[in-house]
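Q: Can someone sanity-check these two? First one:
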Amino acid sequence: MARWKLPAHLETERLVIRPYLSEDRQAFVDLLTEGEAPRRLGIPPERRSVEEASGLFDGIRASYETDQPIFLLAVTDRESSQFLGSCGLAPQDVPGTAECFYAILPEYRESGLATEAVRELFSYAFTELQLTRIVAFVFEENSASQHVVEKLGMRCEGREKREIFPEEGLV
């Protein structure tokens, strides 16, 4: 398994992308229990409870203190520090490859924030983590997410069925 160093923070014109802080708990729980984000992130219905999301949050934060942290970061507004969403990377079987994932709270979508956050994450991944390839899994009906990956220069390589999702996605 890859051993990736988490950044203290990454900054863009509008965002700060950083490891989760204890004060992010409620926003994280809301992100993982409300709306379409839990399904699109592959969280099974039986795990979309406040208790499950809180437990996951605690596990993520605890992992930051280990030599193999979970590479999941909070996306926040640069000026107000308001929590806007999340982005991260998951190691893949092929060395030098990761899958990216991201979720923005509904009220902040369609403003380019996901693209901005993930572009900065990619920059860190390619330069600091020395990754050579990043993939994404996107549901076909999620045109906004398809738009994000297209703006990042990614291209569709095909369809894939994953055990945790009820339908195929684009990779």
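And here is the second, same format, sequence then tokens:
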Amino acid sequence: MLKKISKTLLCVLLLFLMCACTNNENTLQNDNNIPNKEEEKNNENITSEEDIITKLTNETPAGQKLYIHNVSMSDTFGNSILPNSNVGIYVKTNSKEGYIITNVKVLAILDENNENAFSENETKTPSKILFYLSDNDYSLLEKTKNLGEIRLIPGSANKLNQEVINYILNS
């Protein structure tokens, strides 16, 4: 029993370290993950959920939808997921697990009071992460809600797990 618990903890730690390394590599290799002053200024000027949602809805590119994902501090790896960074969407069901969507840009993060969780003056506990998804990815993620756990992983995965995607689509 102790070996099983130790292996599980080791796997969780390894996954966390892999994600942290992936995030660091992407930050070093891709300057697009670093928020510029204009993006930071735009995020600071938006203070309430309604304002953020209205602004992002009005700016939604054709063929995409705004997705709002509920999170906790641990879901964001201790606030290592930031606005304008990229995440991979990892799913764990009873029988399958893997990345189903990669390279998703985080548009905004709201706190429990539905205000911008990151401002010049303070960092608050995240409650919601907002991002755009294609219509197909949006439908896939909505269907996944009923089948398993959805995790946002900092950085972006290299490989989608088509077996997991097919499992979700056929369920």
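A (reply): Looked at the second one. The beta strands are 64-70, 86-93, 97-111, 126-134, 148-154. The mean pLDDT is 75.
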